[in-house]
Amino acid sequence: MRVFKVLRIILDKTYLYAGYTGALFLLLILGFVSLQMFARWGGEVITGAPDFTGYCMAAASFLALPYTLNAGTHIRVNLLLNALGRFKIVGEIWCWAVASYLTFLFAHFAIKLTYESYRFNDISQGQDAWPIWIPQVPMAIGTVLLAICAFDNLVTALFTGKDNIRSAGIDLQAE
Questions:
Q1: Which parts of 84-132 fold into alpha helices (H)?
Q2: CA-CA distance, 164 to 153, in Å (whole number)?
Q3: Are 114 and 133 in contact (CB under 8 A)?
Q4: Upper half-sphere CA count for residue 19 (Cβ side, 13 Å)
Q5: By C-alpha distance, which of 94, 54, 70 is closest to 146?
Q6: Which distant-in-sequence residues (6+ apart) come within 8 Å of 46 by Cβ?
Q7: What pLDDT, on a 0 to 100 scale, did the predictor assign at position 113?
Q8: Quick one: CA torsion of 3, 152, 157, 4, rounded to 10 degrees?
Q9: How far is CA 37 from the centre of its chain?
């Protein structure tokens, strides 16, 4: 059982650090926007800054997904699940199974897209002419971590009747 506790700690820390990394990219967005603003006031133009801002937005969004799911800040519609009554756990398991399947598909295709961009040496269309696989890597990492998080919740729901969602505080057996 100690192995499962260690695994739980590792997964929770991984989701947390992914959230921190997403927040770091938000700070980079602030930096790029501020830099553009100050440059315009000085009559200068920073080429490629809008593109890098967009890359940071994508990275922030995807890297924050596993943390927000685990923290219970994703939108959850419990109306149907509450209507299931004592069969709520079955509904939760079904939802986590579908979510796991879809997020693993999403992760698979995100990795495939990133690899194909690398293989064909795709270059961004903006003024920066940046290899597009570089900003796609955080997207792929975020989707893989989201898939792991969904599967983690599925396994936990199967074996304990609860999920790992923290701030929602939902106990599937109690409701």
A1: 88-119
A2: 6
A3: yes
A4: 14
A5: 70
A6: 35, 36, 39
A7: 96
A8: 0
A9: 29
- Give the Å distances, CA to CA, from 164 to 112, 129, 157: 29, 42, 8
Q: Note the pLDDT of residue 71.
A: 86
First-residue to last-residue Cα distance in the chain: 27
Residues 6+ apart with CB under 8 A from 33: 53
What pLDDT score does 127 carry? 79
pLDDT at 166: 63
Question: What are the residue ranges in the chain where pLDDT is below 50?
Answer: 167-175
Tell me the pTM: 0.86
**CA 82 to CA 36: how far, in whole Å?**
49
Cβ neighbours around 157 below 10 Å, total: 21
Residue-level pLDDT at 37: 94
Rounded CA-CA distance 54/45 in Å is: 17
